[in-house]
Every structure is written in structure tokens, then in C-alpha cells.
Specification:
Blueprint (H helix, E strand, L loop, with lengths): L13 H16 L6 E4 L8 H4 L1 E7 L17 E6 L5 E5 L11 H4 L1 H8 L4 E10 L8 E10 L20 H10 L4 E7 L8 H9 L4 E3 L3 H9 L3 E11 L10 H25 L2
Helix pairs in contact: 1-4, 4-7
């Protein structure tokens, strides 16, 4: 088992590391293959309890390439859940953020591992700031597209991936069947860890962004490279800087997630239950 803590320590073939991690998950959970994977961002943690029957829960640090989350609000475990119809969902509660400085390979390792377990669908969730004034803290929105403003990518070399309809229209349609009131917007990942300035938020709005955060976009690129169908949700934890009347804080993010926990967890579980 490896637990690299520096980008230069990550082995040359990240896909081989992902295959090793998938083998670890199969051994530790007793589940040979998973059908769906979901990454639980800030505020989404309780959804794992509602998806189905938990088969196994393991510390992420026992799986090759994973480490303890650096951020409060992430549970630090990998969970195998069996749905009522017998499918297996890999619930990822350990996310490596770009701002931790471990390199992009580590950021997208969980997604590549999910693909290596056999998962064909990747559900990415996060807590984020909203630019639409009609949105309120605690409101879930669908991600319709994204802007990657990290100035980085998980793709290496001459790897050309089509990004049209990155966030599956089919899966977004399923989500709206569950909750027709769901709004959607363009997610924008910035490098972090500082929150965006009001000027940066105005820039994001000017180039087409509706949501600002520090995760998800790089993971979605890796999921597309792996051939997965992608669904994304943002929990709007606050209005973005310059729009919000109060200063931004991580405590605000955690509180918004706690207040919305029941609604968004039920929503996510119901959507996953309908995905085929």
C-alpha cells in the first residue's frame, strides 16, 4: 500500500495505482465490482445512509493512494452500499482538494479508482458559493457545465477529450423527475484555498459562471476520460463574495450543509435509486 504525500512521489502510471486501489477496495469490502460512485462534498455526508444497505465501511487511508481529508465536513471513509435492486454504490467520503498541493493525480485518484472498480456513473457533489441572487443558502442545484480556472488538468500528453455535455443531460433529467424545482448552473473551480474576491466573482459571472468552488471540475475531466457518465450537484452554502451581505467562512459552509442535510441527502439517495 502506498500513501504518497508529494506529487513527485506518485508513481508514473496513475491508472495502475487506481487499479491497485480498486483491488484494495474489493478485498476490504468483499464487493468485486461497483456500478455507481458518488463523492460526498461538504454537507452531503448523510446521503450514504439513505442509498441502501451498507456492506462495508473502510478508512480511506487503508486504500492505496488515499489519505485523510484535510477539510472538516468530509468523513474520510469509503463505503460500499447495496441498493434495494442489488446494485453496488461506492460512496467516497475522502476528497483530496487541489489546494492541498499534492498534485492533480492525487486530486482525481478517487475518480480513477471508482472507474477501476467498474463504476460507469460518477456523481460529484460539493458545497459552493452562488452568484444567482435568487438562490438561498441550503439550496441544491444541478451542475449543467463547468469552467476550469485552476490552470491545470488531469490529462497528460496529447490526450484530447471531448467535453460536450460533460454533465449528462439524461442524468439531469432523472434528477428533475425527483425534484422538478431544481435549478442549474455553470460550476467554476478556482484554485483556492482563499475564498474569491468580489472582483473575481464578477469575472466568473462575466465569463458565464454561476457557482464558485474549489473542487469537482478536475474530477469531472478525469471521469470523462474514464468514459463515465457524470452527474453533478452543488449545495449553495452562501452567496458569493460581493453578493453576500456577510463575510465568508468555512463555518458558514458547514452550518448550511447541516441545515440542508435532510433535504439534500434524501434528494441524492432518490436520484441514485433511479439511475440505470
Amino acid at each position: 500500500m502506498t500513501d504518497p504525500s508529494h506529487p513527485l512521489d506518485f508513481p508514473a502510471d496513475p491508472f495502475e495505482v487506481a487499479r491497485t486501489a480498486a483491488a484494495d477496495i474489493a478485498r476490504l469490502t468483499g464487493v468485486e465490482q461497483h456500478d455507481i460512485a458518488v463523492t460526498l462534498g461538504s454537507g452531503w455526508g448523510r446521503a450514504a445512509e439513505l442509498i441502501g444497505e451498507t456492506v462495508a465501511t473502510i478508512p480511506a487511508t487503508e486504500v492505496t493512494g488515499f489519505s485523510k481529508p484535510a477539510l472538516a465536513g468530509h468523513v474520510g471513509t469509503l463505503r460500499s452500499v447495496r441498493t434495494d435492486d442489488g446494485r453496488h454504490v461506492l460512496v467516497i467520503g475522502a476528497r483530496t482538494h487541489y489546494y492541498e498541493g499534492h498534485g492533480v493525480r492525487r486530486v482525481v485518484h478517487s475518480v480513477r479508482t471508482a472507474a477501476a472498480t467498474g463504476a460507469k456513473t460518477m456523481v460529484l457533489t460539493n458545497g459552493a458559493g452562488g452568484l444567482k441572487r435568487s438562490w438561498e443558502p441550503g439550496q441544491p442545484v444541478l451542475i449543467s457545465d463547468q469552467l476550469n480556472l485552476t490552470n491545470d488538468t488531469p490529462l497528460e500528453g496529447a490526450t484530447f477529450i471531448d467535453m460536450t455535455d460533460l454533465y449528462s443531460p439524461r442524468l439531469r433529467g432523472i434528477a428533475r423527475e425527483v425534484d422538478p424545482s431544481l435549478d442549474e448552473g455553470v460550476y467554476t473551480q478556482l484554485r483556492g484555498p482563499q475564498y474569491e474576491t468580489p472582483a473575481e466573482v464578477r469575472m466568473v459571472g462575466a465569463v458565464g459562471g454561476d457557482i464558485v468552488g474549489m473542487s469537482t471540475a478536475l474530477e469531472a475531466i478525469a471521469a470523462r476520460q474514464a468514459g463515465m457518465e457524470i452527474l453533478g450537484f452543488s449545495l449553495i452554502t452562501n452567496l458569493a463574495a460581493g453578493i453576500s451581505p456577510t463575510p465568508l467562512s468555512h463555518e458558514e459552509v458547514i452550518e448550511a450543509g447541516r441545515n440542508a442535510e435532510e433535504r439534500i441527502s434524501r434528494l441524492l439517495a432518490d436520484v441514485i435509486g433511479r439511475i440505470r
